[in-house]
Amino acid sequence: MIKFENVTKKYDDGTVAVDSLNVEIRQGEFFVFIGPSGSGKTTSLKMINQLVPQSDGMIYINGKEVSGYNIYELRWEIGYVLQQIALFPHMTIEENITIVPEMKKWPKEKMKLRAHELLEMVGLDPEVYAKRKPSQLSGGEQQRVGVIRALAADSEIILMDEPFSALDPISREKLQDDLLALKKKLKKTTVFVTHDMQEALKLADRICIMKDGKVVQVGTPEELIHHPVNAFVKQFVGDTARHGFEDFYLEELLLPVEDEGSLETGAVVSYSSSLDELLEKLSEHEQVTVEKDGEAIGVVNRQMIIQHLSTRLQERGISNE
Ligand code: ADP
Ligand code: MG
What we know:
Layout: E1 2-10, E2 16-25, E3 30-34, H1 41-48, E4 56-61, E5 64-65, H2 71-77, E6 78-81, H3 93-97, H4 99-103, H5 108-121, H6 126-129, H7 139-151, E7 157-161, H8 169-186, E8 189-194, H9 197-203, E9 206-211, E10 214-219, H10 221-226, H11 231-242, E11 268-270, H12 275-284, E12 287-292, E13 295-301, H13 302-316
Parallel strand pairs: 3-8, 3-9, 6-7, 7-8, 11-12
Antiparallel strand pairs: 1-2, 1-4, 4-5, 9-10, 12-13
Helix pairs in contact: 7-8, 9-13
Bound molecules: adenosine-5'-diphosphate (ADP) and magnesium ion.
């Protein structure tokens, strides 16, 4: 879908922002770039729609090299959400949402329907919000409009650069939940940049950890938590995710055993297991059965544990900034 092949970006002042990037983002995938400030996340993202041209290497979208695309078409076809979304202040919310459809000369009625449908999707009543100006919305609401604007033209690819980092924790969580729902519904290929591990764990299908312009590791949340390739990843994901889990109780997470017959042999842990032991098992099995005194008392699956870790991180306000 999107393929970086030995991509390097050296800015005019000599800064090597991205160094031999090799990454393949799959169709429909929610792919997260994470890393410390200055690690090359934004540069990587901007090379996809060529807001920043690479110095070396090749970038392919659907098998076609990006330089082969008409640059304007490329940008229209790729939704883009920034940290500080710039809604046009003199235009209504509806007009802001339909900027790209307007450029694509969609019929008026279709544009209106689309704007209203999207507003509804993120819980903003079109009757109330469509005709308002951006200044009449809160920061969180404006950012929600920024997100749906990127979806308006139904582009196949959405790029998001720390879209929620300027928001207060409550709005941020609400928008993450919206995005999670949109993700399940729309299945767009999304490339999302963040420095917030909690956010990455919550949203990503796969995470790419960057440092000094290089990829340190690419993997699913489970892979990164359980099989960090080095101390940096471990510190960035593992230790962060595990920190403060001394009081981890498996019993809190249990789902009822629904079908005794389907229990996988081998995928069993004791109810007194540590988080490490549980993660070990979950790296091999999609779900595990929890036993107490030789009896199955419930099951835990990967999705739940990731969700749990993510929530706990959020509660503790741990982030990697
Ligand atoms: P991140 O998004 O991970 O914080 P960036 O991609 O913005 O990282 O930046 C990577 C490196 O490139 C940093 O060292 C940054 O200072 C540098 N950089 C970014 N944009 C420019 C630019 N326009 N000119 C020169 N250096 C830049
Ligand atoms: Mg950045």
